[in-house]
Amino acid sequence: MIKLTQRPLYSAVFCILFLAAGIGMLLTFTSAAVYADDSNSLEAPDLTKSASLTITGGGAAESTLTDRNPNTFISFVNDGEIIITAPEGERISALYIVWRTPPEFWYIDAEDNSYTGGENGFLHETIKLDEPATEAVLHWEYRQAYLADIYILGEGSLPDWVQQWEVPEGPADLLLFPTHADDEHLYFGGTMPYYSSRGDVILQVCYMVNHNGEPYRLHEQLDGLWTAGIRRYPIIPEFPDVYSNSLDHARSVYNKQEILAYQTEMIRRFQPLVIIGHDLKGEYGHGAHMLNALCLTEVIENTNDPSYFPESYEEFGGWQTSKLYLHLYNENQIVMEWDDLVLANPFFQGQTALETAVKAFDCHVSQQDWFQVEASGPYDCRKFGLYFTNVGLDENGGDFFEHLELPRMSADTMEDIDEPEDDVILPVEVLPESSSESSSAVLDEEIKEVLPANESAQPPEDDKPKYLLRIVAWAAGGISLALAAILFLVGRLQKDKKKLRGKR
Hints:
The protein is an alpha+beta fold. It has helices at residues 2-37, 183-186, 191-198, 215-227, 247-253, 256-270, 287-299, 310-316, 353-362, 411-414, 436-443, 468-503; strands at 52-58, 74-85, 92-101, 106-110, 113-117, 124-133, 135-140, 145-153, 174-176, 203-205, 274-277, 323-327, 333-335, 383-389. It is 32% helix and 18% strand. It starts with a helix and ends with a helix. Mean pLDDT is 81; it is low at 1-40, 411-474 and 497-504.
């Protein structure tokens, strides 16, 4: 009886095995086909060094544009043209352009198609071609231009280091107000990496000053933001970078009303739920940091008032932000454990928020001798205090969006909530009672300038679902092999038993 049922059992199991193996192979081939057909799955090769460039109208060697050094550049007067030819057997799918200072408009012609750049004034800009081409022509007309680098990409998905900036339009959930390029990493720590990796938060960075007098810092600024996961191009105003060692000095350098108007416009324009600002004492005593933070404490109460800077109210309407956190503010404190937060987005390659902040700061090569990202000590980038709230005090901590709902509603829906309800007001226990003038007196204490030392850092996009079929295929194949091995051993055991029986 047993002998009669064993053969059909083995046959059935082997059929199941072959079926599983077949499914595994089918999934493998299917996933391979999907992988091959999806151009976003194969990384585009960098053809920069092997492509040829023919330049007209410029005054330097072609190698200047391919040396990956934004501090070397070619000056073009009035107009210019660069013919880019792909190496034999390759085609161009995108051009990543780094300007020293960009012309107002510039163009790329390839395969009977024309593409326009420069509309948004981006210093780093990528143009993807609709059809891969063996030749592309970069040109502009009757405008002076300073071109630093050209990166030439072949067919496939663009590598993570290629910056594809989004226009800063529409609401942002989290608005950061750093003073200088690099403050966003040094003092806001893992804020940008962590919240950009979550996928439910839109971030916008609005600086207080520009570094136009030090052009190399503009490239460091963009590289650092991209490394930290920011995809919206930053807002960089016209206020110059001037060192200030006190609040009084900062007030003599900058027009406070202009700073207030700028911050008000940014808040009304981007309608943030949460704002992050500097230490009221200016971290290491920088007067511009102090002024930036102090202005935010005044602005936060007035952005929904039509009479407060009415020009931006007329353009964008009013807005009441729900929370304002200030770095190192000593009331209602929370500690953001950046070093414990591993970033899920594959772009960050398994790093923590703190590690990414360090890498992003490392892009600021010119600042490495003076500063470093610190997760302890007097400038601890993990420590913030809730200065303003209209949704109550934090209870759990560890999340700037506690008591707030994400993801955000659509822009169409948000038009209906420009005016907050009457009962949505800030708790008096959270906002200091002193006026901005009296609080500025407290902030005027002499703080000795203490400048930190040195550390290191580098870049991080989301592509998870593509590997699901592969994982299933590998799992099916592995299970099939394991079952086959087990059945083989069982079969051998049965044969050995039969031989033993025969000998008896």
